[in-house]
Amino acid sequence: PPEKAAPYYPTPQVVLDRMLQLGDLKKGEKLFDLGSGDGRIVIAAAQKFGARAFGVELDPKLVAESRAKIDRLGLKSVSYTHLT
């Protein structure tokens, strides 16, 4: 397995919401999240703000979990990639 570049700590929802609000994200804008973990930022950006969101993650387990959640939610505006 690839060596972890940093530990994974999920961003608390209140922090995530405030971060996206401060970024003044608009519908249709693009958001890129490098080291996107479980995808919560890209998912929130798409769901709450209508953004086109792109996540990149090293951990294949987190990528699989994120893709499954994105599929369950039917989010077509989210792309999630495993960086090898």
Write up this protein.
The protein is an alpha/beta fold and 84 residues long. The protein is built from 3 helices and 3 strands. The chain has a 3-stranded parallel β-sheet with strand order 1-2-3, with helices on one face. Strand 2 (52-57), helix 3 and strand 3 (78-82) form a beta-alpha-beta unit. It is globular, with a radius of gyration of 12 Å.
The quaternary state of the protein chains shown equals single chain
Sheet bearing the most strands, described?
A: 3 strands, parallel
Tell me roughly what share of residues is in helical segments.
40-55%
Number of strands: 3
Mean pLDDT: 90
Mind sketching the topology for me?
Blueprint: H1 13-22, E1 30-34, H2 40-49, E2 52-57, H3 60-73, E3 78-82
Parallel strand pairs: 1-2, 2-3
